[in-house]
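Table 4 source record.
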Amino acid sequence: MEEELHKRIVGQDDAIKAISRAIRRARAGMKDPKRPIGSFIFLGPTGVGKTELARSLAEFLFGDENAMISLDMSEYMEKFAVSRLVGAPPGYVGYEEGGQLTEKVRRRPYSVVLLDEIEKAHPDVFNILLQIFEDGRLTDAQGRVVDFKNTVIIMTSNVGATLIKKGTSLGFRSAQEPELMSYKDIKDSVMGELNKTFRPEFLNRIDEVIVFKSLTQSEIKQIADLMLKEVGELLAEQKITFSVKNSAKDILAKEGYDPNFGARPLRRTIERLVENPISEGNNNIDSE
């Protein structure tokens, strides 16, 4: 399992080990069969691989990275918005459409459910989640029982992101620079922040809290390699040979990294410096 996840996730060895152990425990029957396969909180700065790991898990567990249901919890900050998760009450607009969470899981019961920026959700959302974690099911506004026992619930959060950045040194570390704190030390320090943000009864039902560290420059370059490989595969289908010099990869890694957004700008950088020149007929991309 770790080997498959490493093909797409760079620089998060401890996170991959932790979630792989938890998934294996569930598959070995060491969990309540009524409850979801697993429930996790992913902590870490923006752009370090949290969403990509969720997508990779969907592909590994269910054979399709599109077997991922993603909800932005900043859209559920107000009390009136919470009911949208299970559906509007009878007589209200949207009643026939079903809940934005329950309907998606009803249609795709084998899936990874990604709840992004969970700390922004209204407190009533956590009551819904507690029911899922405890009973493995929800009843929607139309009275239908939706089964969550074949889902993996992943919640991402930026809680403790500043501590994590300090623990793995601020911004870029050189490839030679050692980490300032161990994974366990960083996780222990972040748990204090987590306990201040979430209720104990909620945290006690989470299978594992997974910490994602900041990325090094060499790791950003590895991510650039993965993205360039995808570009090369697309071009190969058109019988176009594609290669990028090491010096060009260094430029892409440098320009595609932002201390506040991690590797997130890298895709746009590759589009600007690699894909656009190729699409415009300029094959001399090494000079970019």
